[in-house]
């Protein structure tokens, strides 16, 4: 891959996964969806920016720092992925077959399942942020960044190894990414994780990947594959899982 195409892939990934003002150029989206390695790179950059408020854990009250991190996450990442959590919540509680659940995912009406799913996800992130705020600054930042990288690595795995349930955003990734593209990416990220062992960040990263497995498994079983909403939900759920696993690891290691 040429340097120019790699830069276009990163720019496309930043534009899709965050609210950072990178602009848009022809070819960015195409380069991104054929370059799954761009996912964790953006996770590293965006996760580092969102973790800045955690540097104040030794000077400000823990709830204030936690709120700052929560606002920073949505300020940097945006809230559009939360829509996937809402749609997944409605699909989880609906009665019916696979086609009925797919219809609910496409429905713009907000049901009780959506409200509950979003509320639990945001509350879980806030509580995880409060846990981070009780740690030393470097440990808190390391866990937050590792969780974001792990989340994006999991999304790359979905793109390379997953199967789209129907035409849409999910297929935009799955039809252009191959399992072979994920192998070197996973090796590099896992090697970096090994270098940080036994720090909690090394546990937060696979914890985030494990969190993504939950919506991925459910969608394969009940929808016949993944779609754009599952990508969005996985992005939010993976982050929450990674942060909580990292905080738990800190208390045990």
How many helices? The count is 12
Structural class by secondary-structure content: mainly alpha
N-to-C CA distance: 41 Å
Number of strand segments: 0
Mean pLDDT: 85
| Largest sheet, strands/sense/barrel | none
Uncertain stretches of 5 or more adjacent residues: none
Subcellular location: Cell membrane
Membrane topology: Multi-pass membrane protein
GO biological process, one term: cobalamin biosynthetic process
EC number: 2.7.8.26
Give a short summary of the structure.
Its main location: membrane. This protein has 253 residues and is an all-alpha fold.
Description:
The protein is built from twelve helices and no strands. It is mostly helical and 253 residues long. The mean pLDDT is 85. The chain has one domain (3-252). It is 75% helix and 0% strand. The chain is globular, with a radius of gyration of 18 Å. InterPro entries: CobS (IPR003805). Pathway: Cofactor biosynthesis; adenosylcobalamin biosynthesis; adenosylcobalamin from cob(II)yrinate a,c-diamide: step 7/7. Its cofactor is Mg(2+).
Reconstruct the topology from this structure.
Blueprint: H1 3-17, H2 28-33, H3 38-50, H4 62-77, H5 82-93, H6 98-106, H7 112-133, H8 137-161, H9 169-174, H10 179-196, H11 201-222, H12 228-252
Tags for this model:
mainly alpha; 253 residues
């Amino acid at each position: 891959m040429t340097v120019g195409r790699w830069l276009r892939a990163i720019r496309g990934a930043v534009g899709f996964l965050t609210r950072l003002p990178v602009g848009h150029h022809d070819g960015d989206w195409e380069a991104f969806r054929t370059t799954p390695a761009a996912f964790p790179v953006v996770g590293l950059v965006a996760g580092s920016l969102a973790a800045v408020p955690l540097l104040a854990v030794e000077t400000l009250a823990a709830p204030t720092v936690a709120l700052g991190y929560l606002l920073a996450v949505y300020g940097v990442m945006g809230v559009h992925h939360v829509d996937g959590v809402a749609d997944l919540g409605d699909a989880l509680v609906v009665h019916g077959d696979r086609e009925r659940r797919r219809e609910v995912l496409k429905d713009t009406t907000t049901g009780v399942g959506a409200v509950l799913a979003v509320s639990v996800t945001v509350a879980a992130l806030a509580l995880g942020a409060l846990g981070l705020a009780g740690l030393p600054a470097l440990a808190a930042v390391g866990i937050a960044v590792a969780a974001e990288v792990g989340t994006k690595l999991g999304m790359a795995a979905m793109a390379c190894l997953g199967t789209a349930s129907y035409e849409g955003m999910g297929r935009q990734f799955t039809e252009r990414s191959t399992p072979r593209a994920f192998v070197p990416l996973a090796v590099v990220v896992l090697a970096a994780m090994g270098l940080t062992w036994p720090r909690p960040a090394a546990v937060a990263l696979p914890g985030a990947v494990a969190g993504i497995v939950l919506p991925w498994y459910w969608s394969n079983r009940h929808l016949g594959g993944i779609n754009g909403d599952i990508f969005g939900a996985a992005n939010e759920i993976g982050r929450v899982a990674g942060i909580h696993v990292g905080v738990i690891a800190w208390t045990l290691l």
